Amino acid sequence: MSPGGLQLPPVSLGGSPRSTDVPSSEQPELFLKKLQQCCVIFDFMDTLSDLKMKEYKRSTLNELVDYITISRGCLTEQTYPEVVRMVSCNIFRTLPPSDSNEFDPEEDEPTLEASWPHLQLVYEFFIRFLESQEFQPSIAKKYIDQKFVLQLLELFDSEDPRERDYLKTVLHRIYGKFLGLRAFIRKQINNIFLRFVYETEHFNGVAELLEILGSIINGFALPLKAEHKQFLVKVLIPLHTVRSLSLFHAQLAYCIVQFLEKDPSLTEPVIRGLMKFWPKTCSQKEVMFLGELEEILDVIEPSQFVKIQEPLFKQIAKCVSSPHFQVAERALYYWNNEYIMSLIEENSNVILPIMFSSLYRISKEHWNPAIVALVYNVLKAFMEMNSTMFDELTATYKSDRQREKKKEKEREELWKKLEDLELKRGLRRDGIIPT
Amino acid sequence: MAGVAGPATGSGAAGGDGDDSLYPIAVLIDELRNEDVQLRLNSIKKLSTIALALGVERTRTELLPFLTDTIYDEDEVLLALAEQLGNFTGLVGGPDFAHCLLPPLESLATVEETVVRDKAVESLRQISQEHTPVALEAHFVPLVKRLASGDWFTSRTSACGLFSVCYPRASIAVKGEIRQYFRSLCSDDTPMVRRAAASKLGEFAKVLELDSVKSEIVPLFTNLASDEQDSVRLLAVEACVSIAQLLSQDDIEALVMPTLRQAAEDKSWRVRYMVADKFSELQKAVGPKITLNDLIPAFQNLLKDCEAEVRAAAAHKVKELCENLPMEGRETMIMNQILPYIKELVSDTNQHVKSALASVIMGLSTILGKENTIEHLLPLFLAQLKDECPEVRLNIISNLDCVNEVIGIRQLSQSLLPAIVELAEDAKWRVRLAIIEYMPLLAGQLGVEFFDEKLNSLCMAWLVDHVYAIREAATNNLMKLVQKFGTEWAQNTIVPKVLVMANDPNYLHRMTTLFCINALSEACGQEITTKQMLPIVLKMAGDQVANVRFNVAKSLQKIGPILDTDALQEEVKPVLQKLGQDEDMDVKYFAQEAISAVAQRLRKLDFPVKDSEEPSAPGADKNHFLRPRGPGEDTGKVLPLISRHKETEWLEWLPRRQQRQPSLGVQVQPRDQHISCT
């Protein structure tokens, strides 16, 4: 694109240290002119081209930032379309393909946005605009519309964390000031997440969007609308399945806990959802799930706990006996949590039988001495809690194991019989054995 | 599941004929409810057996309703279920009852997990063909409508894949409705649904009447191609190919081209990439005239696109594009309209672009003929042969055969040699590996003389490379060369050099001799093997390193079939018997293996073979890692070092252990691979 548009001589705007240059009556017109000038885009991939003009645009943007911060009465109605146009021209662009073939945010360095010297100021200016005391959403909503928001959301895929950080603030302000766009924004974030989970597994701004959602959920009115519950169950829970969970898990867990604090009756679907998507091979993710579960348990109501304790502790029993010591350790740390301990104690007659065989077995078999020590403490705690049941379980441990083994053997025989049966049927069909 | 009996009701459940052998079926059904996913999965996979045992009626009235209700299971189980149901028509009583399968599949087509949904749609498509036209309208079409108007996006995306299978056999009125439903999905407000619709647009267009294509599909196509999301727009490019195939030249010009032109200049590189990627298909679909007027200029732009991704995709298509141009005026057109852009790409800043070009550019020589190739293409080839990026050079070398046919390889050989030598010594072993793989091809094209003079020494140098994979590839390479140049050549140039390595102080090189003999013996034939190779192998049986000795045993087993019985009897047998008494477990093991193989050949001979003597002492294999690496050291086992080696070697070795061939016996590791990697 040609930088030919910047033909106006550098003139100072009011509000800047050189405010005396221009009489205040001419400042609004100059403001519009400067906005128009800043619509010109420069090629930053070519580091040598238009150096002077780039520098001029940078200083102009700086002036704009100062002007909008300090001046009073600068946001007349006719400035709105020009501001939005300037911002759109600069920030809306198709993000370039990632430099690394399969960009892995955990391994690779992000590609930083080359035009950041300008882009940063444009974002800065836009945020000051949105936050200005004179800012009137009723006028701005003509220009900051659904299409604008959609393009803004697409930018969250930027690899540059600095840009995503600015976008987060921008979107948050827009959500706060434009009531009419709220439902739309939520729906589009939904779509981005669903696409991320079910289609591409690739979107750089998931953590930032979740952070915004965390504060949105915080503000939900009670009782929760069906739409919000659906969002929790059909979007937030499936987000746990994504490979790159570690990049946004903290924000995700925060959202989940926010929901549960709002409406405890959601505990059961949430925990069942986590059980359904429990990682099968990735120990690192398992540790994250256990961490999130503890956060949930911290706020769980005893009445809700009773509803999910069985599936929950079956899973915890599996984790405790994981050969990966970090998983086992993370699960065993639950017994250091006083609130969880009190819940376990109240329901020890249900939980102890579920946990016992796993605990008993690893206390003898686990390769890691630290785990064995932790298990020993847990067993001791159970013994103190409910000694009669503990003794019973210890006594029947062996016979239970034998029963399990027997069942396993029966199953094996069943499959063998089944094969025979199929074989016979096949022979019959082929006319070898008469029916 | 109340109706379908569990094991409690025993044999009565299974068909009611009192056949006790059907008891397992009842258990199987019970297992469908087991807590353990794996067990449910096993059981689901036997669903056809269950259905067969229940009979068609009970399958319809009991099993299918039960399955429809259980659809809250893990995705893995659901996937297996969706797949099974696709082949279930026979089990529910044939085409007349195929519609019974629709309810469970309908639920499966609405679940979140894409894999499950796709499989359900696939099965539904399969089953739709088995419906009679009446049943199709009575059962299948209503299902499609329900899915298409579902609340959640999953059911609507699934519906997109079902329109094209029911449309052709529907009545005119229903056809109208189906088109209406499809139209509304194309403008759904969820992008996921629009994407699904856009990706099925071409398929749907193919089953429509031409009038409807023009009046309905084209507007949908135009809309999708200007969607606000680039992920939708790029799918429209794919549909473009199918739609253009259906239309006349004039219609293409009027209805499709405006959109296609726009796509080629889309502001999103993803859309432009798609145009570049589908270029050959587009070219065929729009025909030669439009290609010349529209596509060539578009292609030129794609070749100089600002995104490297797009340029690389376009560069990949250069050869196909040129091939598919009309013969008349082709040469001029390529020379004037394409070649100038290609010249630019040779010095592109992005290596993927250059490498994409290098993988096809040689193909142009057949199209342009000898003179143009020498004058215009050769300089480009030579420039790419000197490119800083090894992939570019490799891609040129790997396509030499195309040029060879046109101008002969001599034109290139002067530049080729430095390029090959440089790749042969590249620091990355994968690059070295790649060039080795082209050696037989190069040898064939360059001829024996050139090869002996320039390349032979390279091939020998690879044999002592420090990476095992290279040494291995180098031995295979020798075998291929012998196949090409014949045994006489082998005897004169290769075999002596290989055999000299048997005396190398490094035991890895001594083993390479054995590996080479394994590879070469067959190609060289009995005489060379017996006279030249066998004595060396036998001599090496006295090597002080156990790894060499057990490889001697393996080699003897390998070359056994080539030798005559006298040699086997007189020379091989005694050596193997001696190795069979070796103090080392593994040497013993492989010697035994070889003895039994040789014995099979010499059936009349009385070799004592005791299978029970397979070495199995646990831990014995570990000690081999302590074996002295250099010459002159004792072969005794140096126990105190175990702990030191455990940390390093042991870890590396563990994964290998899983690759072990079951036939090798339980305890013996293929150590040769491991040690030589270090």
From TrEMBL, chain A:
GO cellular component: cytosol; nucleus; protein phosphatase type 2A complex
GO molecular function, one term: protein phosphatase activator activity
Polar residues bias: start-end ranges: 17-26
Region annotation (Disordered) ranges: 1-26
Biological processes annotated in GO: signal transduction
Superkingdom assignment: Eukaryota
PANTHER family: SERINE/THREONINE PROTEIN PHOSPHATASE 2A PP2A REGULATORY SUBUNIT B (PTHR10257), SERINE_THREONINE-PROTEIN PHOSPHATASE 2A 56 KDA REGULATORY SUBUNIT EPSILON ISOFORM (PTHR10257:SF92)
Physiological role: The B regulatory subunit might modulate substrate selectivity and catalytic activity, and also might direct the localization of the catalytic enzyme to a particular subcellular compartment.
Family membership: Belongs to the phosphatase 2A regulatory subunit B56 family.
Protein name (Swiss-Prot/TrEMBL): Serine/threonine-protein phosphatase 2A 56 kDa regulatory subunit
Species this chain originates from: Capra hircus
Name of the encoding gene: PPP2R5E
